[in-house]
Design brief:
seven-stranded parallel beta sheet, elongated, 44% helix, two-stranded antiparallel sheet, 9 strands, alpha/beta, 9 helices
Length: 260
C-alpha cells in the first residue's frame, strides 16, 4: 500500500499557476511535464507551436495521473496569445548572457510568486529542448530565472518543470509526515539490561567501572531517538547472540578432539 505525504496547508493558489512549453520537440517531454503538473497540483499546461503531438508517446510519459492534464491542455500558434490572460510571466533559462538579464534563481523567486499567486495568474515559461527560450521569447517575461547546475550539466525541459514546481510547492506547503513512536523508558531499560548481559558474556565491559561503561553506551544510543521497533530489533539480536554463545560447540568435543 502506498502512503502519500499529507500537506496541512498550501499558501500558493495552484489554480493560478500554469506551465507553458514553447516549441517543444518531443511528445515524451510534454507527457512528462503533464505528470509533473499533476504531482504538484498545477492543472494548466499550455503548448506553443509544439512540433510533435503523438498521443501514444505523450500518454506513456504522463502516466495515469497526468492524463487529465493532457486532455485539457491548450495549444497556441504564438506566444503572445498564449500569455494574454496572465498577469505575471516567469521565463527560465540555462544561458546567462548579458542580454538575457538573469538575476535570480528559482529558489530565490518562489516566495514572491507564492504571494503574487493569491490574486494573479502566473505562467512559468520553458523553451525548446535544444536552444531553450530565445531572446524574443524572454522579451515577454516579467522576470527570468535559472536553475543552478554544474557547468557540465544539461537539464531536460521536463526535469526543469519538475524542479520549478517542486520549489513552488515546498515554498508554500506545510508538510505533515507521520512520526514514529519512540521507545518508552521501560522498553529502553529492558534493552539496556540485555545489552549489559551480552557485553558481560563476551567480556567486553571493564570490570573496574561497569557503570561508566554502560553510561557511555546509553548516551550513544540515546542520541539515535530509537523507536519501539528498533529497540525490539536490538533485543532480538542480543538474545540470539546469547543463545549462540550458550550453544556453541565445545572445543574439547567432536570428531576433531584428541583422544585421551
Amino acid at each position: 500500500m502506498q502512503v502519500r505525504v499529507k500537506t496541512k496547508k498550501l499558501r500558493t493558489r495552484l489554480e493560478n499557476l500554469a506551465v507553458v512549453l514553447v516549441d517543444t520537440l518531443y511528445p515524451e517531454n510534454i507527457g512528462s511535464a503533464a505528470r509533473a503538473c499533476a504531482n504538484f497540483g498545477v492543472s494548466q499546461l499550455i503548448l506553443v507551436r509544439p512540433r510533435d503531438l503523438t498521443p501514444e508517446k505523450m500518454r506513456a510519459m504522463a502516466t495515469r495521473s497526468g492524463l487529465p492534464i493532457l486532455e485539457k491542455m491548450r495549444i497556441y500558434e504564438d506566444l503572445v496569445s498564449a500569455l494574454s490572460d496572465f498577469n505575471y510571466v516567469v521565463g527560465t533559462t540555462a544561458r546567462l548572457g548579458k542580454q538575457r538579464k538573469v538575476y535570480e534563481t528559482v529558489r530565490e523567486i518562489v516566495p514572491r510568486i507564492v504571494d503574487l499567486s493569491q490574486e494573479n495568474r502566473v505562467a512559468f515559461l520553458f523553451g525548446n529542448e535544444k536552444w531553450g527560450l530565445t531572446n524574443e521569447d524572454l522579451y515577454h517575461c516579467h522576470t527570468v530565472v535559472t536553475i543552478p547546475t554544474t557547468e557540465a550539466a544539461s537539464l531536460n525541459v521536463a526535469q526543469a518543470v519538475v524542479i520549478v514546481l517542486y520549489e513552488m510547492f515546498c515554498a508554500s506547503a506545510e508538510v505533515e509526515l507521520p512520526k514514529p513512536r519512540l521507545a518508552t523508558v521501560k522498553e529502553l531499560e529492558i534493552m539496556y539490561e540485555i545489552i549489559r548481559e551480552t557485553l558481560k558474556r563476551i567480556d567486553y565491559i571493564p570490570h573496574e567501572n561497569e557503570t561508566l561503561w554502560m553510561t557511555t553506551i546509553r548516551r550513544f544510543l540515546s542520541r539515535l531517538d530509537l523507536t519501539a521497533q528498533e529497540v525490539r530489533v536490538i533485543q532480538g539480536f542480543c538474545k540470539q547472540l546469547l543463545w549462540a554463545l550458550e550453544h556453541r560447540p565445545s572445543k574439547t568435543s567432536g570428531p576433531s578432539a584428541k583422544q585421551g
